Model the fold of this input.
Amino acid sequence: MTLPKMNRVLLKLSGEVLMGTNQFGIDPAFVLELAKEVKAAKDTGLEICLVIGGGNIFRGMAGAAQGMDRAQADYMGMLATVMNALAMQSALEQLGVETRVQSAVQMDQVCEPVIRRRAERHLEKGRIVIFAAGVGAPYFTTDSGAALRAAEMKCDALLKGTSVDGIYDSDPKKNADAKRFETVSYSKVLADDLKVMDASAVALCRDNEIPIVVFSIREKGNVVKVLSGEGTQTIVTDHTA
Ligand code: UDP
Done:
């Protein structure tokens, strides 16, 4: 299946890809490589909204598993996503790409708050808008933040760049016979619990008919390949024919 003609996309990057080959945190050299991928996508003429996770620094669930209050741990996770957004902003600006960070948790000295009309203006001016702090509430993830911003900003697709090259019928790390879907419906992802994004994010995309494209961001040049229909990916859509 090829993607319909797109003008604006939301690109979601998992926090873990910012670690590079490290086990934790941010590898600035690797963030610069990722920024080149984002710039290449923008250079195809697309308007780009960007959401970056925080799992390379802190996940609320992990904190809660160690006895922290879940909401408190989630606030920390949200702050981690702001750090990642600032790192990506810095890398993109090194490449001469204008960006603005908008955070769902207000921090005026550091970045703008999320204001849709202002974000629209930034995109019109050719800037990339990086949305930080997810939906701004605990008990959510940045996947839900990405789905929400994709709907709010009327994006034509949500591209999820992660460490695997699509959605498989079982874990490809554990099962050598695992098969990758070319396309899969939202309801199958939800019913079979296919662990690609959390259920609230998938449901929001389904209800707003936003295709989700899952691909590996670790492969150089892959964003542009996926955008041109030549990459390896899985597309989540109800148009699976
Ligand atoms: N988080 C949250 N609300 C949101 C978005 C994120 O509470 O709307 C917290 C949550 O603790 C999450 C952490 O921020 O685990 C980091 O985000 P996520 O796990 O989505 O990052 P990723 O897996 O994409 O790196």
The beta strands are 8-13, 47-52, 99-103, 112-113, 128-132, 157-162, 183-184, 212-216, 233-236. DSSP finds eight helices and nine strands in the chain.
